[in-house]
Amino acid sequence: MDSFATNITIIVIAAVLMIFIIVIVIRRAQLKLWVFKTYYGKFSFKYVSLFREYFNKNPYPHSVKYEVSDFSQLLNKTSIEEVLTDKDIIFQGLEPGKSYPDFYKQKGKPDYFTIQEFKEIKIFIWGYNYSMYDYDTTVLYFFIDNIFIMGQYNFRKENQNINITDLLNKIKSKYFENNETINLKEIVIRDSKGSKIQLFDDGFSIRISVYNPEIPIVKEKLLNNINISKQQYLHIKSVSKSEELKF
Fold first, then answer.
1. In terms of DSSP bridges, do strands 112-118 and 81-84 run parallel, antiparallel, or are they unpaired?
2. 65-116: per-residue pLDDT in tens?
3. What is the pTM of this model?
4. Is residue 6 part of a domain?
5. How many structural domains does the chain have?
6. Together in a domain, 18 and 94
7. Which domain holds residue 29?
8. pLDDT digits (tens, 9 = 90+) for 18-43
9. Do 34 and 128 sit in the same domain of this protein?
């Protein structure tokens, strides 16, 4: 009887172990995701990348599909007239170039979250729904290594009638006492530290960006890599053209 009971116990244990192994095999993706999410954090690059690898989608709603090349063009624009303000340009209490390691804890859960990757550069983009000057907007925060590199207000024109003149006047009044002659569509506002405000209207939305092209992490990690990439691309094209000429 004891031998029979022992055999039953062994069979039960073996069955439980087998079921446990099968569950692990079937649910290994979810298990690994849980480990990554717990250890690295739910907004970490490792967790988000693994989620994309398994499910081919972002675990959170996209804040914006923002190409690094677009950011480069914004930073490299030098032909636009600049107007100097004696007030510091701050974006929602954040200054471009400063480190904010506790941003998520202070700001709370985002409505949108995206990680854009370019070579070894990872740009974390946090998005929050917001109301500004009686208009609905999405506030975007761009970070590299916890350093705030750019902020952007994205006013979508769908479902709301935006008076662009009224919007621009309210923005200008924050930085200038007499702003009648200032046209934000054609100029950039800059402060003494090099931070800038620039507006772009593509017909579908109005984007107001706050950034500083002079901060070290932008110049070292972003612009230099983009310029190298452009040079490599131009070199490849020139080689291709020369090869075509041989034939």
1. unpaired
2. 555 555 666 666 655 778 888 889 999 999 998 999 888 888 888 898 888 7
3. 0.73
4. yes
5. 2
6. no
7. 2-55
8. 776 666 655 666 777 777 677 677 77
9. no
